[in-house]
TrEMBL record:
CDD domains tied to this protein: ArsC_ArsC (cd03034)
InterPro entries: Arsenate_reductase, Arsenate_reductase-like, Thioredoxin-like_sf
GO MF annotation terms: arsenate reductase (glutaredoxin) activity
Protein name, as recorded: Arsenate reductase
Record family assignment: Belongs to the ArsC family.
PROSITE patterns linked to this entry: ARSC (PS51353)
Catalytic activity: [glutaredoxin]-dithiol + arsenate + glutathione + H(+) = glutathionyl-S-S-[glutaredoxin] + arsenite + H2O
Annotated SUPFAM superfamilies: Thioredoxin-like
Keywords recorded for this protein, A-Z: Oxidoreductase
Signal sequence interval, chain numbering: none
Record EC number: 1.20.4.1
Family matches, as Pfam families: ArsC
Species annotation: Pseudidiomarina halophila
Membrane-traversing stretches: none
Length: 116
């Protein structure tokens, strides 16, 4: 059985709800606090692929302050968007649950059940 991981922000209610849902299912996931742990561009590209080849734009939180500061509204270059997420990790939508070659965004939390 593949290990389950969650890219988690303990200050985010959806992230906490998703983690609780996993635990209710008897799953003790590897918790990756992505605001603290190092991420690379390859890590984000891998997540995007596992999310179903989602674009970097779809993974960005547009309501974060850094989104406006960096003027990302009209940015379409994937590498620049990924770089922005690496420099300002709060821009990464959360939570993301990974199992094997698949991932799901926990919005709503129940969406992650598809890959378990």
């Amino acid at each position: 059985m593949s290990e389950v991981s969650i890219y988690h922000n303990p200050r985010c209610s959806k992230s906490r709800q998703t983690l609780a849902l996993l635990e209710e299912q008897g799953i003790q996931p590897r918790v990756i606090e992505y605001l603290k742990e190092s991420l690379t561009a390859d890590d984000i590209k891998d997540l995007l692929s596992k999310l179903g080849f989602m674009s970097a734009r779809e993974l960005i939180r547009s309501k974060e302050e850094a989104y406006n500061e960096l003027q990302l509204k009209d940015e379409h270059d994937e590498d620049r968007l990924i770089d922005a997420m690496l420099q300002h990790r709060k821009l990464i939508e959360r939570p993301i649950v990974v199992k094997g070659s698949q991932a799901r965004l926990g919005r709503p939390p129940e969406a992650v059940l598809e890959i378990l």
